[in-house]
Specification:
elongated; single chain; Immunoglobulin-like; mainly beta; 255 residues; 53% strand
Length: 255
């Protein structure tokens, strides 16, 4: 999949083909002072195939990786690993790529290296199996279970890292779409909804189709404003309910 830079989309068709994706890391606490992991990258793949083909980097991690203490990620704190736009399509897997500089600090302050199997370093593959809707924002949460991931190697005093994680998805906005039936008469139609102190707007295309992306869940009034030279008057549609991860289709609308 080819990636897009984060930014505003002025064309309704283009924006309907991309989804905002955020990937955050959180922690289930363990009985240690610190558990430091060497994060090299976050990647996605548009299939569930287990091979190494087709992975695309979407990470915010600096070149060479960065060390994060998982025990800092408690009490609602999360680490943003990625915040970008990707083509709206089937998302099969998310992959967390680790390096070899993982360590654990025991309760007495002793720091031990965390031996990490090369297979784990090459990528912890988490299945998502979700089709992303155009214009919708998604929040993927990787829950790193420290208590079950750090394993003492018998009586050797050594510790191994066998990551136990799960990924959950929350769509954090919805979409409003519809079609202006008499677009040839209305000419250019501005479509808008007020969200708090901001207004989300778009224009209907030549076929009359419009789509408002990234609308938070709630109940809205959709305003349709035809071209001033069309002779048509402004139209409002009240009580439009937007749900996370869903497309609200207003159908055909006559101005």
């Amino acid at each position: 999949m080819s990636l897009y830079l984060v930014g505003c989309e002025s064309d309704a068709d283009d924006s309907s083909q991309t989804s905002a994706i955020k990937v955050r890391l959180v922690d289930a606490p363990g009985d240690y002072k610190e558990v430091n992991i060497d994060v090299r990258d976050i990647m996605i793949k548009n299939s569930t195939n287990t091979d190494d083909q087709g992975w695309v980097s979407i990470g915010n991690t600096p070149s060479g990786g960065k060390i994060y203490n998982l025990l800092d990620l408690t009490g609602g704190v999360s680490l943003m690993l990625s915040d970008t736009l990707i083509p709206s399509a089937y998302l099969g897997q998310v992959r967390l790529l680790l390096g070899d500089k993982n360590t654990v600090m025991l309760k007495d302050g002793t720091i031990k290296p965390l031996s990490t199997p090369s297979a784990q370093q090459s990528g912890l593959k988490l299945k998502v199996n979700q089709t992303l809707l155009g214009g919708v924002s998604y929040d993927f949460l990787i829950d790193f279970d420290v208590d079950h991931s750090v394993v003492k190697a018998g009586n050797s005093g050594n510790y191994n890292l066998h990551p136990v994680m799960r990924v959950t998805t929350a769509a954090t906005s919805g979409v409003i779409k519809g079609t202006i039936a008499n677009i040839t008469v209305a000419k250019q139609v501005l479509v808008s909804v007020v969200v708090g102190t901001e207004t989300i707007t778009t224009y209907a295309n030549a076929e009359g189709v419009f789509q408002l992306n990234g609308v938070p869940p709630g109940t809205y009034i959709v305003t349709l404003t035809p071209d001033s030279t069309s002779g048509l008057v402004l139209k409002t549609i009240p009580d439009v309910i937007v749900v996370n991860g869903a497309v609200k289709d207003l159908g055909s609308i006559m101005l």
